């Protein structure tokens, strides 16, 4: 079953975020068992050339490669989709028009306005017809709800044809409320509860990015009904593991030396 179908029926999937451009990072994470991996172009220095290589590695490992765009930019969308991304995560979708713009950039006419190129996704010219069919049936468009304006326009955004789901960007959403990073603040909790209720009422797949590598937070969100869960990032996995283990080692050594 492809990711688009899993999103449609509400099956839980777990992915992660890649910000480090080395292909070994993508291969290690793909072989770890994630359902999908996101190449992040918004908060990284990954180039379009590096993104293509990461997409290729993830894809060849049998994992779904997605790209979080730097902006709702039709040129960038076209380039990453031509490079073989299975879909895009679009930041700062705050209005219905933002969602329509993203869909239009992913899809060919008559639904969209994407120009036709023959690159990796189209098997360098030998598989355009197959790709066109795949694009219609399996490509994925996820909108990021990460601003209070997106919350206010939530229902109209999700009613846009070909939008497959949404994912909450917690840091930017809390920032738009004037409380950046304060996820326990009553104002933030109230907005999240509002989004959860609206998603349930619309029978729509809900997503959330658990930024810190804390498995219990993933379990909590899954219990709350989230189905598209991004679990942390490559650099946090690396850094947190190093810090925790070194702290444990040093505490043990200091204890023994007393």
Largest sheet: number of strands, sense, barrel closure: 8 strands, parallel, barrel
Order of helices and strands: HEHEHEHEHHEHHEHHEHEH
Quickly count the helices. Answer: 12
The number of distinct structural domains comes to 1
SSE-based structural type: alpha/beta
What radius of gyration results from the CA coordinates? Answer: 19 Å
Number of strands: 8
- Biggest sheet: strand arrangement: 1-2-3-4-5-6-7-8
Instruction: Tell me the CATH superfamily.
Output: Phosphoenolpyruvate-binding domains
Which whole number gives the mean pLDDT? 96
Under the CATH scheme, which architecture would be assigned?
Alpha-Beta Barrel
- Give the CATH level 1 class: Alpha Beta
Question: Percent of residues in beta strands?
Answer: 15-25%
Q: Tell the overall outline.
A: globular
Q: Which stretches are low in confidence, meaning pLDDT under 50 for 5 or more residues running?
A: none
Share of residues in helices: 40-55%
Q: Give the N-to-C terminal Cα separation.
A: 58 Å
